[in-house]
Amino acid sequence: MPHVSDVITARDLNKFRNLQVLARQVVEGFCSGLHRSPHKGFSVEFKEHRSYVPGDDIRTIDWKLFGKTDRLFIREYEEETNLRCTLLVDCSGSMGYSGSRSHGVTKHQYATATAASLAYLMLQQQDSVGLVTFDTDIRSYVPPRAQAKHLQPIINELQGTQPGEETELGDVIKKIEARIHRRGLVVIFSDLFGDVDQLMKSFARLRHANHEIILFQIFDPDELDFPFRQWTQFACLEQESNRHLVDPAQIRRSYLEKLSDFREQINNACNRHRISLVPMTTDQPFAETLASYLALRRRTQ
Amino acid sequence: MTFLNSALALGALAFVVPLVIHILNRSRFKKIDWGAMHLLESVIKVNHKRFRLDQLILLLVRCLIPALLAFCIARPLLTGSKTMEANTPVSLLLVLDGSYSMEASEKGGSKIKQAIEAARELVLSTHRGSDLYVLVLGDQPLPLFDQPVFDAEAVVSRLNNLEGGYGACDLRAALQNSLAILDKMNNAHRELVIISDFQRAEWMELLENGSAEIKQGLEGLDISPTLTLLPIGSPVEGNVSVDSIDFPRKAIGAGEPHAYRVNIVNHGKSARENTRVIFRVNGKEESVSQLTLPAGGSRQVLFTHAFSEPGSQVIEAEVMTDDPLTFDNRFSVSVTVWDRIPVVLVDGDPDPAPLMSETDFLQVALTPFALGRFQYADLAQSSTVNRETLDAKNIDAARVIVLANVSRLSVDQTRQLKTFVANGGVLFVFPGSQIDLKWYREELFENGSGILPAPFGRQKGKDSQPHRIVAQHFEHPSLELFNERSNGDLSDASINRWYLLEETTESGQDPLRKNASVIARLDNADPFLMECNYGKGVVLQMATTCDTDWTDLPRKPVFLPLMQQLVTTTASRMVPPRNLTTGEPVIAWLGNAGESATVTVQTPTGSERVIQSAEQDGQQVADYPFTNRPGVYSLATPEETIRYAVQTDRSESDLRLLDEDQLNSLAEKTGAIVVTSSTEYLQNDQLRRNGSEIWKFVLAGFLGFLFLEMVLQQRFSRARV
């Protein structure tokens, strides 16, 4: 059985141990946690007083204040709620790519490590974390739990999946949406290679359901600068029969233009839907990228 | 096309290298399992066909690059379809224009110097084993060597000593001459190079009429030579020349004043004012005249001079002006001044009564001053003898002998007379009632081989029907005077009776004597005066008497100038001539002296040569043939000093050249190549021998393709998105 340490090293953990994943927007949850909840209730964090209106729970009346002012005020607290976070990890074939500069780490492995770290972090702060692995369809679904021991099944699942098949993130999101009832945080680890329009439609639907989305777009450096020189046969990782023998020099420029267009499209769509897009390259240590993102997120809270 | 390093040309096979690399690349490709296929695929799909074409083009360019490099290193030569001669020897015939127009001075020295320099370069550039022949064009083509020579140094040393200043030549003949020389030269490749200023006066005729002939001549040779025209120098303007001096054709007597007309031509486009003309006699300045020469026109200056001394003299006119060609600014003429001309009149019908003797009128006509007791001296000095008293002494002392109505002479007298004429004497024959027609026909005419121009035929005419001399235009120098009517009219005289001078055979077709000519005719077309040369002398034969028996001509005033003209003109005819054109030999007859005489020749340059006379036809003859340079040649014989004026034709003085079109047309018509300098000729020669090296162009092509490859590579990577 894989252990956490197989996925995340202690050194990596140290980099973001003190950080917390804070939902930017209000999420619904039962347990107390670090996140704002729309439900006001008993808690330590006083929020405000307001005038009593009939129908209010009598238990919430601040009797001490009544004694001083002779008027009825309701004492309101801000309830801290736990976050329901769903991690979506792309297990399609394209995630299986590993270039020369990524030290043998496939994009999928990178995504796994990042997802595991995030899961660990969130479970640490008593948020509930679920996991969905997918390619064209949902491969497996681990429902969100807030117990610390829930990390193990998540890790098991992450470790157990191997990249293959094609991606169809749009369809997957449609199906996942049905399973996540409460609004929460959806974190997606994928290269997003696919039909951008359909993808964005799905994101729009998720956003409509008031989910907050963080998109970790994972690239291999090779995919960003296309460094190949000699004649190369590119075989599609998702479709065995799809092969092209080309002179990379001939197509580099247009490939890069195409890539830039693609990223631009994604970027624009994310901005439009207020989705946090975090591009990651597999040659950078994921812990650092994650830590800096979380730190940034905390600052802008 | 050939290569200097042919082995390296095999390096062109290196074109397979990019091909192999391409094929290897394609076969030993890297396999990559790629994730972002959707990005890649869209690019490939759009550009698939173009990629293949681009690759093909790029491959082609890359293949060309090593091939071009190898080609460049192999140093290719463009040779046309011919095989290269490299350093094989040639037969080079240089025709160098030595005419005096080449003496015209220019910035870079005279044209002849430039021409010699060019010739020198051409000669020195020939390869070992080349045979060379240099022909200098002048009045007479002058070869530097008699035979083609193989020693370039020797040719150069002679070229260095070469001087121009010869006259114009018959180009056509000279070129034909050079073709004949070319035919005898040794090497398989033959070059004919003409170095000249291509003066219009000289070349225009050839351009218009003779070029096809030259071309045919060139093509007709066994080995057809390459003809190259090398024009030297640039056009110069403003030449002034003394074209000629007109001097009296009749005998000039010592002390007699005569007029000498100097013809001066200004070939320039602007008039020359106050130009001085100096008249010299034997090198001593006698008179100076000043005149204005109109632009492009001619002027005549008249000088009058009386020679004090008899003998051979030279008059010279020089125009003092600053023009590009000084060579033609002076002209000299040799004249012979006579002290007296001894005339022996042989009277066949003497009569003591005045004017009744046969020769009385002649005597009056020849020595008018003596008879009229004028202060002037008669040039002719006549003495009258009878048929019987005519002897060797009389004959030897005479310059002119007149037979007037002499019936016949003795055998000895006849022989002496023939010798007299053969040695240059002048004989006049007048008929009359007493002459022995048979003797004249048999002894003097001798079927055309004797001294008489024509046999006397039957006597013609009646007293009642006089005939007259036709006053035509006379070509004979002695009668030229009468072309001007104011000098006397020969047709005034009535000719009543005369002998028919049988100029032709009975059929009237062929002349009886080939070298006899009719000087004047009667109005019935019978010959009146005939002339023939015999040996070095001349014989004049009249159809009627020299007294008034048959004609009233002796009574007419015209008789005096007629006789004076006939005697002085024929007697002054110098044989051999003393006014020569360059190239003609200077010849002096030294008489019958049996021993060879030493003669000193002074050339125009001042150098002296000593020659020995040799016997020809019983006479001692001094012959000096090297008269290529114009000027005065003096021959000092034991008896006297004879001056010869050697001149060139003045057609060269017009310094206009063939213009570029005309020169090209000449080249085209003769199949020649025109080069502007010896350097260009040598370059052409180099090209012909070795072809033109084109490695620079190939290198440029190579670099160009390298650059193209880079550009293409850049360009082809810009595939459609």
Structure description:
With 301 residues, chain A is of the alpha/beta class. Chain A has ten helices and eleven strands. Chain A has a six-stranded mixed sheet with strand order 6-5-4-7-8-11, sandwiched between helices. In chain A, a hairpin with a 3-residue loop joins strand 5 (128-134) and strand 6. The radius of gyration of chain A is 23 Å and the shape is elongated. In chain B, the strands form ten sheets. Chain B has a seven-stranded mixed sheet with strand order 20-19-21-22-29-28-27, with helices on both faces. A six-stranded mixed sheet of chain B has the order 8-7-4-9-10-38, with helices on both faces. In chain B, strands 12-18-17-14-15 form a five-stranded mixed sheet, with no helix packed on it. Chain B is elongated, with a radius of gyration of 40 Å. Chains A and B meet through strand 9, strand 10 and helix 9 of A and strand 2 and helix 3 of B.
Short description:
The complex is a heterodimer of chains A (301) and B (721). Chain A is of the alpha/beta class and 301 residues long.
Helix content bin of chain A = 25-40%
Oligomer: heterodimer
Placed side by side, the strands forming the largest sheet of chain A appear as 6-5-4-7-8-11
What portion of residues of chain A belong to β-strands?
Answer: 15-25%
Unreliable parts of chain A: 23-32
* Averaged pLDDT of chain B: 85
